[in-house]
Write a structure and sequence with these properties.
309 residues; alpha/beta; 7-stranded parallel beta sheet; 5-stranded parallel beta sheet; 12 strands; 18% strand; binds NADPH dihydro-nicotinamide-adenine-dinucleotide phosphate; binds oxalic acid
Length: 309
């Protein structure tokens, strides 16, 4: 039994070194080196090349290096009987929460505009917004959404949520399903997308949804680029209904050079950095699942194939 790491960025060596340091008894390979394919039982992946998983005849589990698994479901070569796991980690959740809080406060206090003004030596005071006047709506009240909601409440925000199943979270009203979606939207001065990307949620941030938001609402997408219909966002910002957007994720990453989001004065772009899996914090759960596989025990943090998350 052995682990293979498959990812197309420059982080393979760091993950491999850390895995070996914590579990010297386990064989860990990069998919780029010569390795015994039939020994691989666990593949740890992040945006793996198409068909990369086909070459492991004894694969027993595919583990995402992140919270999202959309890129694994997109790969039709992953055999249906193989369980898929994802990262559930308090550090990932608190990093996300800190990021979204920073984005909201930067928007409230016009910090981006002042940075642009500074570069032109322009002295131009602007009106600012207050926490006490704002309701934040979070789409997706899972591991990340719930932590964000709790932190926003601690910071005196009025917070509401939306999910598929009911939740009891002190101080937070959670709406569910399509029936309650428009009521939820009509109250959200800031709308945050923390949904998984599935068949149901693809393109959910569109004209129809933006129309239901209060005038001058601000949209933050820290989930996946596939949730957003880019042209619809531009239309609703340019016609003045929305006051702007903070976007961390895009259909194509890196965002193509010619994309209009880059230069839009009301769009704040970041390069998919809202919350990045922390190696030290995530390795114990990857190793625990590897040991569970070895011992034939149930795996932790498996996703539901039917639901797609
Ligand atoms: P979870 O699976 O824990 O939570 C998903 C939430 O979305 C659940 O509350 C679920 O409802 C709700 N949901 C799913 N489908 C629907 C639907 N059709 N309608 C309404 N609600 C729905 O995911 P996480 O919180 O761990 O992560 C969310 C996403 O954040 C990830 O999938 C990933 O894409 C993204 N992400 C982005 C990062 C970044 O750096 N930008 C970093 C990490 C994650 P219910 O609870 O009822 O099932
Ligand atoms: C994730 C991500 O899904 O980093 O964890 O986007």
């Amino acid at each position: 039994m052995a682990i293979v790491i498959i990812r197309q960025d420059n982080k393979i060596d760091s993950w491999k070194k850390a895995l070996i340091a914590k579990a010297p008894d386990i064989s860990v390979y990069s998919y780029l080196e010569e390795h015994p394919k039939e020994e691989i039982t666990l593949a740890c992946v992040w945006k793996q090349p198409v068909d990369a998983l086909k070459q492991y005849p004894n694969l027993k589990c595919v583990a995402s290096f992140g919270a999202g698994v959309d890129f694994i479901f997109k790969d039709k070569s992953v055999p249906e009987h193989i369980p898929i796991t994802r990262v559930v980690d308090p550090v990932l959740a608190s990093d996300m929460s800190e990021f979204v809080l920073a984005l909201i406060l930067s928007y409230f206090k016009n910090l981006n505009n002042y940075k642009i003004d500074q570069s032109k030596k322009v002295w131009q005071p602007r009106e600012y917004k207050r926490i006490s006047d704002t309701t934040v709506g979070i789409m997706g009240m899972g591991v990340l959404g719930e932590k964000l909601a709790e932190d926003l409440v601690k910071n005196r925000f009025n917070v509401i949520g939306w999910a598929t199943s009911p939740k009891i979270i002190p101080g937070i009203e959670v709406y569910t399903g399509d029936n309650e979606k428009n009521t939820f939207l009509s109250r959200s001065n800031i709308l945050i997308c923390l949904l998984p990307l599935t068949k149901e949620t693809t393109g959910i941030l569109n004209n129809k949804l933006f129309k239901e938001l209060p005038k001058q609402a601000y949209v933050i997408n820290v989930a996946r680029g596939g949730h957003l219909v880019d042209e619809d966002l531009l239309k609703y910002i340019n016609n003045g209904h929305l006051s702007g957007a903070g976007l961390d994720v895009f259909h194509e990453e890196p965002l193509p050079f010619e994309h209009p989001f880059w230069t839009h004065p009301k769009i704040h772009i970041t390069p998919h950095v809202a919350s990045v899996s922390d190696i030290e914090s995530v390795i114990p759960q990857l190793l625990e699942n590897y040991r569970r596989l070895t011992e034939g025990l149930p795996l932790k943090y498996t996703v539901n194939r039917e639901k797609g998350y």
